[in-house]
Amino acid sequence: MSSKKQKLELNWIGKEKRPRLEPRIFLEDESLSYHASKAEPALSEDREAGSSGAHVYHDNLLIHGDNLLALKALEQDYAGKVKCVFIDPPYNTGSAFGHYDDGVEHSLWLSLMRDRLELLHKLLDDRGSIWISIDDNEMAYLKILMDEVFGRNNFVTTICWEKIYTLKNSAKYFSAMHDFVLVYAKNIEKFEMNQLPRTEKQNKNFKNPDNDSRGPWIDSAMHARNFYSKGSYEVQSPSGKSFTPPPGRYWSVSKENFNALDLDNRVWWGKDGSNAPRKKTFLTEVKQGVVPGTIWGYEESGQNAEAKNEIKALFADEGGVFITPKPEKLLQRVITIATNPDDIVLDSFAGTGTTGAVAQKMGRRWIMVELGEHCETHVAPRMKKVASGEDQGGISKSVSWQGGGGFRYLRLAPSLLKKDEWGNWIINKEYNADMLAAAMCKHMGFTYAPSDQQFWNHGFSTETDFIYITTGSLAYDQLKRISEEVGTERTLLICCKAFMSEGADFPNLTIKKIPQAILSKCEWDNDDYSFTLNVLPDPEEDEQEEEMDD
């Protein structure tokens, strides 16, 4: 057997098939975008601008469309910029939900997840992390898939979240009471995380029975089992009682240090001064942060019923309520650990929009993607309520949220190329000149930044390399003029319908025809890479097949 370390890989039907995604552009629907400046500004004056100022929200994006295409569209501008990804993907349980078809065949589910995880990996900051909510049905497979995409060494932990706190006697075997949250770092060596703030429950053991001016304290033993050569002395209490360490133990400080602590009123002898000595530790001296654990109870992290009530409060007039929303307290806990103010939080399975709502209330920027129509009917209205300050549910009161900021509502543009009636690929007639220029910049790796002074400057790749896009045909005289304006210190990529150079060579120009220049770059006119594909067998068809087999 070879001693070479073997890499564990998960194989499934269709694993080798990978989509060749078209990098779409976004189109803003200004009727659904919202900024608090349109309404009454509601930011609290006593909150720091760095953590709650309106400038934090200028880049918030709510994207309606297929999330795989949306992630690809985000890649050019956001690669390496997202600090935290939280996703709550369909669990593939075989149950049809009102807003999701959560029953994708296992191999297809793995492919759909793999394709999205690879793009999410590219979008993450090297210091960032990804958090994925999942249940028992696919958790083990997802763990191995994450090892492949993110690297096993970047695994951080598996959190067990108590989503339900009551037993269901209707359960066939066990009453499921938890979900998992898988946590991976982009780069474990650079991974940044915060501790959780101390809670009142954690501070309740700190008392001040002697009215010490330094405030509440907690006492602890001053002896230990480990041998200490200077820890075998005798001490005397204020009442005159003598003490030595218990058998087999030693004082944890020297005689000199003990006396110094006693002189500073840091030794507690009990109310009557006759107890064994114990060391006082003041609340102001302990860490104000707490290392997160891996068991998250419902009291501090919320639970399903709480999440449903939050949604019902926001959409009292709506007929349909999501069956599996996440509570705001769960996202608050994740975002507290994984981010700092102004960081970008991304959720590509937005659902009801909880991730964005919590991120905004906590002074983070956010990006959410949602395919369903509820992106417009539920998520956008929810985020407007957050920005206006109308949403006072969830964590609002605990963070003193009074509103502020807003978001841009974006849709994915249609495919750049369409087939004509003869089956030839042509530029989509829905694209105007600006849309075409922006799309071609994305395809050719340029930043779209049209110039007001130079008609031929639609974007750049470096400080001296530019791009010009036109559906017209360029004659020799036009090319000569452009070449002269570009000059010898700059270069220009021209994408046009046709050109006539009359054999002349323009060293500073590279000319390509469209759509020929991009035909082989990706697959065109495919708008659905979603989880809504129904690949489960029809029960009636199964029964018919069984009858035929008999």
From TrEMBL:
SUPFAM superfamilies: S-adenosyl-L-methionine-dependent methyltransferases. One of its GO terms (biological process) is methylation. Residues 82-374 form the DNA methylase N-4/N-6 domain. This is site-specific DNA-methyltransferase (adenine-specific). Pfam families: N6_N4_Mtase. It catalyses: a 2'-deoxyadenosine in DNA + S-adenosyl-L-methionine = an N(6)-methyl-2'-deoxyadenosine in DNA + S-adenosyl-L-homocysteine + H(+). Its EC number is 2.1.1.72. It comes from Ferrimonas aestuarii. InterPro entries: DNA_methylase_N4/N6, DNA_methylase_N6_adenine_CS, N4/N6-MTase_EcoPI_Mod-like, SAM-dependent_MTases_sf. GO terms for molecular function: DNA binding; N-methyltransferase activity; site-specific DNA-methyltransferase (adenine-specific) activity.
